[in-house]
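[Discussion] Sanity-checking designs against the backbone

I'm trying to build intuition for which residues belong where. Below is a structure token string of 551 positions. I'd appreciate it if someone posts a full sequence so I can compare it with mine line by line.
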């Protein structure tokens, strides 16, 4: 072991890695008044794949305060996606505005510029950001992470000590590899070869900013237009087939042979020239057994990575950065909250990861019209006899923020019929319940509504638990409601928690509301009545309330 060449650095939190996950965590931590040291191996701007953002990331960019800079950067607006997938051989498109009214577009970003923008924001927020600093090891004492060993621009080793370590080291996964936490996903045995081309054509308006995803016999392509005039082009193929092809022909010839088999991608690239690459990515779908430990937390690709079909990498990293910062603030402030908040962090992270994983599996399995080894293998692997169609629907779709993927699978793909029927049944029931409530809204005085005298009955398995929830950048104790539509649980207000706790299948709404008025002093009179009735409406449509007897 070499002797450290300089004095130790001491800080509250060390963030390993300055990518989207690390920079997001650093910014949020610094704003909470903590001393944050970011150690980034590269000097930004640096190359990175993953240019296509999701609307789900827009609120995080707003919270970080970087949206004006993102807009000023001139990145191409991404209004949706264009696909050659499922039943049709010609391209078809879907748009974010169909399911996301607040954020009808995202961006196709140039990652060197985008990542630098985020890292500079961490500096401006008070984090000590040091580029060209390579962390080689996370140090532990008595099982607790207490610091890191690093080199500065290739010089001798130094030590940095901290009260907490955020591992956002990307696919290097320092802590994950140290403790063998990473488990490769046996379902997504894929490989990607990507490159950048200049002079590529764009899709016709209004889809010129869309990503083009094209299925072809060996797998699928992504084509992402960038504001610098380049097109990001990648072929996703079976790992074994791809590895053999790359060995036989080399990455460039292999990629060009794949492009020749994908007519719509080939058309966009017919007059294009290679600008950079190609690069080969192997075995990049994995998840970690644990993402929180004594003195450390994993963020972004250091924790997990899922097949790139839905461009989920940056979103998972940034959302995890926000949650990780909240956890670290809480753990340092209130050690008694560490264990319960750690469980919630893991549950939230895995829920988001699982959503993308289940939707990707469903997408692959639904592309039944495409012939080829890649698709046949994934149709077989897509069958899960241990899961009912309704369970599959809930895991893949129900209770999740709208992304539009589920509707595309049903409308354009060949999803398993039982799955489709499960979706139709749930949607029809929600429509029926919404119509029933609309018919009951016939009087401006809530006390004279038919609903006011109805007796609500809860569905089976409904429960309210006291758990940590995120509020103002840290975890606090709150209420979480578990329902058929939200099996993973979702935070709810004290009013909803109290109301659900009082529903016994015998007490009418009028007595529930009067009881709440007596016991909850922070809300009074008509305001409470309106809030209670509104909550009942949501709970009924969602299925939390299974029945309203008497109406």
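Best answer:
Here's mine. Compare freely.
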């Amino acid at each position: 072991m070499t002797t450290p060449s300089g004095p130790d650095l001491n800080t509250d939190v060390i963030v390993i890695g300055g990518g989207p996950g690390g920079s997001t965590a650093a910014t949020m931590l610094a704003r909470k008044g903590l001393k944050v040291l970011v150690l980034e191996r590269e000097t930004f701007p640096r190359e990175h794949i993953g240019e296509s953002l999701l609307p789900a990331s827009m609120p995080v960019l707003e919270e970080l305060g970087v949206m004006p800079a993102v807009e000023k950067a001139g990145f191409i607006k991404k209004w949706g996606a264009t696909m050659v997938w499922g039943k049709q051989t010609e391209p078809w498109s879907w748009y974010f505005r169909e399911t996301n009214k607040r954020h009808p577009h995202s961006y196709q970003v140039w990652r060197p510029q985008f990542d630098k923008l985020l890292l500079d924001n961490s500096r401006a927020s008070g984090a000590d950001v040091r580029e060209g600093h390579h962390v080689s090891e996370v140090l532990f004492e008595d099982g607790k992470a207490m610091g890191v060993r690093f080199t500065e621009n290739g010089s001798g080793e130094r030590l940095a000590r901290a009260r907490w370590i955020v591992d956002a080291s990307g696919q290097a996964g320092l802590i994950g590899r140290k403790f063998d936490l990473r488990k490769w996903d046996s379902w997504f045995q894929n490989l990607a070869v990507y490159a950048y081309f200049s002079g590529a054509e764009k899709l016709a308006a209004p889809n010129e900013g869309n990503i083009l995803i094209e299925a072809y016999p060996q797998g699928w392509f992504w084509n992402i237009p960038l504001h610098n005039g380049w097109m990001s082009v990648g072929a996703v193929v079976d790992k074994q087939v791809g590895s053999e092809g790359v060995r036989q022909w080399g990455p460039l010839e292999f990629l060009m042979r794949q492009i020749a088999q994908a007519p719509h991608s080939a058309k966009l690239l017919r007059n294009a020239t290679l600008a950079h690459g190609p690069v080969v990515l192997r075995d990049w779908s994995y998840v970690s057994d644990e993402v929180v430990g004594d003195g450390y937390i994993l963020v972004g690709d250091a924790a997990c990575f899922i097949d790139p079909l839905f461009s989920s990498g940056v979103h998972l990293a940034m959302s995890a950065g926000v949650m990780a910062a909240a956890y670290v603030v809480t753990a340092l402030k209130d050690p008694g909250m560490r264990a319960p908040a750690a469980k919630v962090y893991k549950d939230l992270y895995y829920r988001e990861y699982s959503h993308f994983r289940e939707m990707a599996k469903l997408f692959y399995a639904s592309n039944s019209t495409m012939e080829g080894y890649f698709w046949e293998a994934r149709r077989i692997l897509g069958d899960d006899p241990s899961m009912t169609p309704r369970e599959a629907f809930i895991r893949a779709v129900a209770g999740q923020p709208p992304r539009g993927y589920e509707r595309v699978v049903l409308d354009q793909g060949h999803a398993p019929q039982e799955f489709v029927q499960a979706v139709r049944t749930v949607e029809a029931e929600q429509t029926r319940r919404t119509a029933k409530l609309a018919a009951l809204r016939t009087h401006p005085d809530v006390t004279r509504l038919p609903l006011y005298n109805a007796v609500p009955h809860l569905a089976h398995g409904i429960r309210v638990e006291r758990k940590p929830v995120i509020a103002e950048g840290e975890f606090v104790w709150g209420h979480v409601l578990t329902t058929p539509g939200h099996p993973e649980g979702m935070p709810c207000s004290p009013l909803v928690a109290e109301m659900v706790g009082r529903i016994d299948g015998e007490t009418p709404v009028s007595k529930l509301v009067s009881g709440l008025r007596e016991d909850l002093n922070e809300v009074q009179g008509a305001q409470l009545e309106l809030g209670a009735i509104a909550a009942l409406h949501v709970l009924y449509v969602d299925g939390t309330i299974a029945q309203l007897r008497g109406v």
